[in-house]
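Aim 2 progress update. The chain analyzed this quarter is reproduced below.
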Amino acid sequence: MKLIDGKEVAAALRKGIAAEVGTMVAAGGRPPCLVAVLVGDDGASQTYVGNKEKMSAEVGFRSQVLRLPDSTTQEELLAEVARLNADTEVDGYIVQMPLPRHIDEQRIIEAIDPRKDVDGFHPENVGRMAMGLPAFVSATPDGILSLLRYYNIPTAGKHCVVIGRSNTVGRPIANLLSQKGWDCTVTICHSRTANLPQVVAQGDIVIAALGRAEFVTADMVKEGAVVIDVGITRVASETTKSGWRLLGDVKFDEVAPRCSYITPVPGGVGPMTVVSLMKNTLKARRGL
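Predicted structure tokens:
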């Protein structure tokens, strides 16, 4: 069993991005500019945006966080989106989810200029991705592909089983891995899948992205499988200073011995999400 180290991969990608930005600036160009829009005071969102700010500085980007109160109306947020769309100094931006309940998230996503949609959530980017055209791919699916590529994990002709059908992870990663160049045969499982454990056990590559702690057990994974654990659930713990710990969708201790490769939680897919956002911002600066 080999551990897939997301921290190592993310560090290598950050180094490459910083080198390209350095060359760009040395040639007289401006650095990429990334803006994050944060509405309200959700703790997890503030932490995530803070990580984006930190990494932007590490790779030489200009970055800005636009903090708006929870009382911001939908029309006020749409006005900010329109302003960012028109700002030629902003290459890419994200509107951090979740938004307050009174704001229609899909309406906001569709208002973002697809050329600046570095989260990869706009329907135009999703459609282009599905057709195999140049597009911004959302962070988690892109991060998974980067991990597979870095470790030279064979995918052609392999059976990939994806557990979860979300629009942000399950559906896009299934689509991407079925495309030419990756060439997987892909099965998507979900809550209505009959005989789900038996279906998952057929997977050469298993991607768990359903958000249920330790759902995947050893009897669901065949010997030698590659397991990518996207899940992250915070649970109470009496053994940590924080009073909580993070669990993935995979019961790691019992599944790992059966695997050829497996991602840990934390330290697997998680570190890839912010660096994938940096990759998309650099692509936006280049004009995709």
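The chain is about 40% helix and 20% strand. Residues 27-113 form a domain with the Rossmann fold fold (CATH 3.40.50.10860). These observations will guide the mutagenesis experiments scheduled for the next reporting period.
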